[in-house]
Fold these 2 entries.
Entry 1:
Amino acid sequence: MIATLANKKQNRVAKILEHASGDKRFKILEAHMKKHQFKHDALIEVLHKAQELFGYLEDDLLLFIAYKLKLPASRVYGVATFYHFFTLKPKGQHTCVVCMGTACYVKGADKVLAAVEEKAKIKAGETTANNQLSLLTARCIGACGIAPAVVYDGTVTPRQTPATALEHVKGWLEHGN
Ligand code: FES
């Protein structure tokens, strides 16, 4: 039984690491941890950076941090849930994270965000009444070369405009799919 649980955990970590290898945000986060020499007492600082990069802290991200800092996952979850300034996975079925870092901002990220806010009738940080869409912002997701970038359900998408962003979230808002 214990061996099975350990195997399950190992498989999950292996999956997360595989996913992380293709997502630049994880690399930036790891470089940040390295800067802090993977010290345990840098956990809050690392969680802040993770939230800046991803917009919110989802389970896989917390497990990635726990694995890299060699901390028990329960400790990382405990800290992430204790402080009100950390946002855990929002309740929306879908997520739209607009990067508001400098490069994206100067290329019109504010207009992209405003268009989605208006269409969805919510502000950044909120979820629609039907729980279909959670709208969030991040601060530089490491994709400045393709600014303005938006992350739809975990997929970093380049050169967004108000029109392309609305096209993306339209189905979620109207049909919930
Ligand atoms: S500012 Fe948006 S990716 Fe860097």
Entry 2:
Amino acid sequence: MVSPVAQLTTRLAYGATQLSRVAWYVGHGEIMRRLSKRVRERDGETARPKARTDRPVPERRRLFADMAKLFQQDLANVEAGIYPLPADHDGSLFKLLRRSRLFFEDLPNVHRRRESGEKRQVFTDETRGKRPAYYLQNFHFQSGGWLTDDSAQRYDTQVEVLFNGSANAIRRQALVPLHEVFAGRDQRQLKLLDVGCGTGRLIDFIKQIWPRLPVVGLDLSDSYVAEARRHLKRWGWLNLVVAKAETIPLPDASQDAITCVFLFHELPPKVRRQALAEFARVLRPGGRLVLLDSLQYGDEPDYDGMLELFPQNFHEPYYAGYLTEDFPALAMEHGLAHVRDVNAFTGKVMVFDKVERS
Ligand SMILES: C[S@@+](CC[C@H](N)C(=O)[O-])C[C@H]1O[C@@H](n2cnc3c(N)ncnc32)[C@H](O)[C@@H]1O
């Protein structure tokens, strides 16, 4: 039984950290919108076709109300003992300001690419053949695609601005289905793989619950893996590798759980299938897969227009296909049984268990 004082302290600490994060990133978004408005006024209408949708688009008020629900759920998870009061580990003020500078400095380049439709700048003689062609694109129109250190250091600010400071809270919803299968077990005897680990934010939260859990983080970007290594250096029992989701360098039936956050909407349909087949191969029978990614059409019908607009404004070549992909059916083809989906603001946690054959 938690005392009222302890409960109040937790709530105050949670509110103080999360509200200041939201204010910081909403502020960035506001400045970004004003800058782009000024550029549009200066340059006039461009030749680029305007993003359009006939589906419903939520108003900002609705988005913020739903975001508040996400934070309430996040706090409820803390109070239920599913995870501790989260530490976002955003770094010092100096680091935050440096990242803000990187973020704002790149906006004119993002704007130029969006207007010109240039999205293959990272497909060069130097990179060709070293990564799959689908990977060598300027996703989100960002400079360097996934390939540079600056991109890796800018990424978390970009994502938090996009989600108004809620990206980490969305990621933490992936911890709930992990807690279900890990609770009461010896963490040192378990194994978890995070695919497309990026800068390691989810792994950080996993380690805050299970510091001794052996974790492998896998990503196709040297720069993002290096950034994850820096971000996660406080934790032991970690192995970060540069590899493809579709050919995972781990033995069959070796993992108790796989997590994969914000990756599948960036993969071509064929690669999504290959990755699911690999997940099924490396999971132990009974092992759990947690896919956290964008909502799809119909999950939150009032958001459908926003989902349709997103890839028109950011370079997301595989997102339209992702929106209609039937993941439960696809996963079942590989012996991964769908357990449930839970919406988390603009994200969705999809849970699957590897079928145990008798
Ligand atoms: C949108 S980011 C998501 C990163 C992270 N999971 C997060 O929570 O923010 C996508 C990441 O997936 C990686 N990626 C893309 N295609 C991949 C593939 N085929 N195999 C492994 N990683 C891949 C990129 O390098 C990038 O770091």
